[in-house]
Design goal:
With 141 residues, the protein is of the alpha+beta class. Helix content is 31%, strand content 26%. Helix 1 (24-40) packs antiparallel against helix 2 and helix 2 packs antiparallel against helix 3 (106-113).
């Protein structure tokens, strides 16, 4: 995890953003949002990992921040960056979990599935948790 890295200094080649209410169905809507845009950009191999991380980060925003949350999906150089922004300054933290636990594995999953991830805080009292995923080089046929 990185807490200081930012992708703001890079101009995205494309970017999509949506805001969701802090309701149980919003995690599903966020997954649909990212899946649709990944398919639109022909990044089908990223659909499953990005959906999984979206699910974890959106669920964290709903359960812990209980505020509306924004989801941004952007292509920056050779990566796709997923950002989930909510209205809480409470930082997510990994918790030790046991094999039969039903919660507490979200950030371990994010760390395992993404290229890298981190947290950005702003002066307005919110945070953004981001995760990046590698874009495969185009094949020349």
């Amino acid at each position: 995890m990185t807490t200081t890295k930012t992708h703001a200094d890079k101009a995205p080649s494309w970017s999509h953003e949506a805001t969701f209410d802090a309701t149980p169905m919003s995690a599903s809507h966020a997954r649909t949002f990212v899946s649709g845009h990944l398919v639109e950009h022909r990044l089908l191999y990223l659909v499953d990992p990005v959906r999984l991380v979206t699910s974890e980060l959106a669920t964290n925003a709903i359960a812990h921040a209980n505020t509306p949350f924004g989801v941004t999906l952007a292509a920056m150089e050779a990566t796709v960056v997923l950002t989930v922004r909510d209205g809480s300054l409470c930082l997510p933290a990994r918790r030790p979990s046991q094999a039969m636990d039903t919660a507490g594995r979200g950030l371990v999953i994010v760390d395992t599935v993404s290229l890298e991830w981190g947290i950005n805080e702003d002066a307005a009292g919110s945070k953004a948790v981001w995760a990046s995923f590698a874009i495969r080089a185009a094949r020349v046929t």
